[in-house]
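anyone else get weird line breaks when pasting these?? whatever heres mine. first is seq + tokens for prot A
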Amino acid sequence: MVTDLLSLSQTWMPDVVVREGAEYGGCIAAEVLRIPHASVRAGRISSSYAHRHAAAEQLVRLRSERGLPPDPDMRMLHRYLYLACEPPGFHEADEPQAPTMHRLRPVVEAPGSDGDAPAWLADLPMQTTIYATLGTMISSSPGGAASAFEMILEGLRDEQVNVILTVGRTNDPAQFGQQPSHVRMERYIPQHLLLPACDLVLAHGGFGTVVGALSHGLPLVLVPMGADQFYNAECCVRLGVGQVVPLGEQTSETIRVAVRAALENDELRVRAQCVRDEMAVMPGPERAVELLEQLASLKEPLLA
């Protein structure tokens, strides 16, 4: 990617490079071109200042190949600006933070961009509604997703709650057979249309789903299965907004027990609502634009 970016700069020179945290070509190219660059939080390991040495070996080689001076402390990754779009407290208290980190309100979806909420949301038979999802990646994986959905259905089908389960665009809800009236299966529903009608979210722990739930003050039951889901689940427990069913202990019974306990735990909901309120007053994407404009103008690190 560095080669392509440098080639592009011959005909179109940017003032600032903005990169996703796990994309390293952008900052290498920017350093070669002597222009500022900014990173946006993507995941704990790829974006975290505390874990900035994770790709050190490869980055040392890339810098050397491009004639850049040594950077043993990996300052390059957060040198100018780090846009940390995450809920407050979504990191360990003793974790070192980048000097250029600016916290912003995470925005998962733009309200109003996907039409209206489904009409049937107003006619659900039970008083309590649970939204269940395994996210995009797990839902599209062959084989494993179906068994996980079956586990969720078996655990919640007989509970006195509405269950809305989205199975992903590549799965057919009909493959799971006939469901009782209080269980609704769909391929996909934009979360911001669905979550206002829900009381609890049962999910894998993907960052987007967690942020969506917390944006609406909803507690979570998390069944992490891979990637950054374990860390996100730990954060939710630490914040007091969720319960976790650990990998290896995930069965229909443990999920049912965890959901019952979460619905009965008023403190989870209170804490989730507190996080929602704290997020609501955080600066949003418009602040990111202001910071990027400053960076383009000043061409020096923007300290927090």
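and prot B, same format (seq, then tokens)
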Amino acid sequence: MRGLWLEDQKLSFRDDLANPVPKLGEALIKMRLAGICSTDLELWCGYYPYHDILGHEFVGEVVEAPGREDLAGKRVVGSISITCGGCEACLAGRKSHCINRKTLGIRNHAGAFADYLTLPTGNLYLVPDVVSDDEAVFTELLAAALEIQEQVHIQSGMRVLVVGAGRLGMLIAQSLALIGCDLKVVVRREAPALLLSSLGIKSIDVSEVQNSMADLVVEVTGSPQGFALSRKAVRPKGTLVLKSTFAGDVSLNLSSLVVDEISVIGSRCGPFAPALRLLAAKKINPLPLIESRFPLEKGVEALEHARHPGILKVLLFP
């Protein structure tokens, strides 16, 4: 089997990998399309000591599923957290924080940048016929964007600032725009500003960010500088949502958070079913975010390309 292998922060394309074998309750999935995420790039930089096949954003076709033969031939996407179901967190309904969890392409489970992958059938979601592969491959990323609305009650008219107009930031902006809040997105380049304008979303330059200008700030830059800018923008008793995961540390003035009574919320994976419904209803349009496509064997080149500033979604195909 072919795949992109990460080991000791070295990425390589291999064609000698063993085909995964699904256990009872799992599905063997043939990758149709996969998306390169900022987390993949940060893993490459050493964010987490992962040694295996990279990739967690995908749309695929079920080849076989022992015990769930009805899934064979179906197009699917899949939630990436593989949980035990029996630990304290799982039993308390906090499955996304399972003590024994594995994570597709991130932690203790081979990922989607390969010809085949496996996932528990309970993690799979059928892709509606009206959703193309190009749209479906954004399901995991859109679900992560929607998690913000699961965590924070956002009202119409609330001043919301998204700091970061990259792959995830663009989807967060589209999902928040549906609420009718007073939304602005911080951009550093003309291209994302033009794209946001075409979607009817207002953007502002970094130089326009003012102290305490927003009730809710979503930080999605993946940089310490982005965090500092986000902290500046959130008002006292406001909320700061952190979506970035990246290698390295951030200098943080905890006293200012206490004095200003800032609510800080970490946010990662989110709900797949609503994401698919929005894609099917064409209320979210991820297609303008597709910047380029590479065949799997050019995967190292694809990730190198995705590292460049300003690059949006890079896709891999078999």
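btw re prot B: The longest strand covers residues 26-35. Residues 156 and 179 are 6 Å apart (CA to CA).
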